[in-house]
Amino acid sequence: MAKVLQSELSPTGKPLTVTEMSWVASSMPIAAVFGVSIYSYIADAYGRKVGVIAMAVPQALCWVIKLASSNTMALIIARIFAGIPAGGCFNLTPMYVKEISQNNTRGTLVSLTMMFSNIGLLAMYSMGAYLEYHIILWIALSISAISLALMWMAPESPAFLVKKGRIEEAAETIALLRGLHIDDKIVQTELEEMKNEEAHFVTMERITFMGIFKNKAWRRGFILCTTLLATLDLNGYFTIFTYAWSIMTEAGVTVNPELQTLSIPVLMIIGSLLSMICVEKLGRKFLLAGAYIISSLSICCLATILLLQKNEIVVPSWMPVVAIVTTVWAYAAGILPMTYVVMAEVFNFQVRAKLLGCIVTLGWFISFVQLSLYGTVSTLGLHTIFYFFATTNLFGALTSMLFLPETKGRSVEEIERMLLGIKEK
């Protein structure tokens, strides 16, 4: 995106300045900040499925605006419409997938959503490299329409149905999702667990944010998940993804930087596949901590390469490429999927939308600040930024190893006891 918009081939008719590019890039995450609360409300009031469907509408408007006008202001407005559903995407999608999944498959299925997201990135990178600008917009608009039609046929989350007292419909949905008869023991057991959670919930006082934070397990889970998401957003990937072409050019890549940036989504897909294979075998904690360590080392190498080049020391052009793709691989294999898997597992369904909404809002705000300040801070030298990112990744590794409980295959009640420090007998 950065290369096209800052070139003579820019659809705006002129190259965007650094400031304009910063606004185009950062308008999406700041819109996402407001989108999170909108979709959290929709998910709690009208259903997870309705929330996911509602994400497709502003996304389609984004592509329509870009087709109708190509000036800088139109691009910023379009990015705002893209940002609103993006705020709900990383909140509602893991939540919905978690609530329709069984305990022994939820990690794999949440990781699967991340893999399909990476396949989408590969498609956009590839089209951006070889197709005309408006053709890409028409393809993207058609995808939004298709996703809207497919989600219309999807079932509602059983947990939400129980929450609304639609018990029979919830049982039918569980049976449909498991491929079992409605009277099967597995179906009835899952339904009873949800009903018991709801029964416990209704005996409590009206749930407010103050009440949530008075609950020690929820408070500790909120602090842990907020720390994990803040670390994820400051790990450097979002900056690399948005400014990949510029960073590779700055790093001295001479062999078609545009083509080499295609390695980013390819490595992300490979990382996602590894995550899907290992998440139910190795657990969340090991994968997350290991990915942070790898990411910290690779970003530190990239920062050192940039520093050496700034001092006119020649470094082989393949080295920054390896550092970047290793960082991206670690992000896709562990940091991104495991963070969202843990966030989806820690809270029960009565408070899940509220708390994840708060956490994801903070995450998008951090992304906005990071992108909006990138142009200014980069004047200090890219190596400075990436040394900061390397330190952040090291912090993420330590947090995962020292404070994160292993949530693999555990119920919400078991996870809450672990957060309270109660050991299993």
Automatic annotation (TrEMBL):
Keywords, sorted A to Z: Cell membrane, Glycoprotein, Membrane, Sugar transport, Transmembrane, Transmembrane helix, Transport
Keyword flag Zinc-finger: no
Principal location class: membrane
InterPro entries in the record: MFS_dom, MFS_sugar_transport-like, MFS_trans_sf, MFS_Trehalose_Transporter, Sugar/inositol_transpt, Sugar_transporter_CS
Gene Ontology MF terms: transmembrane transporter activity
Domain Major facilitator superfamily (MFS) profile, residue spans: 1-408
GO CC terms: plasma membrane
Membrane topology label: Multi-pass membrane protein
Domain of life: Eukaryota
Keyword Endoplasmic reticulum in annotation: no
Location of the protein in the cell: Cell membrane
TM spans (from-to): 23-43, 74-97, 109-129, 135-154, 222-247, 259-279, 286-309, 321-343, 355-373, 385-404
Pfam families according to UniProt: Sugar_tr
Protein name per the record: Major facilitator superfamily (MFS) profile domain-containing protein
Source organism: Diatraea saccharalis (sugarcane borer)
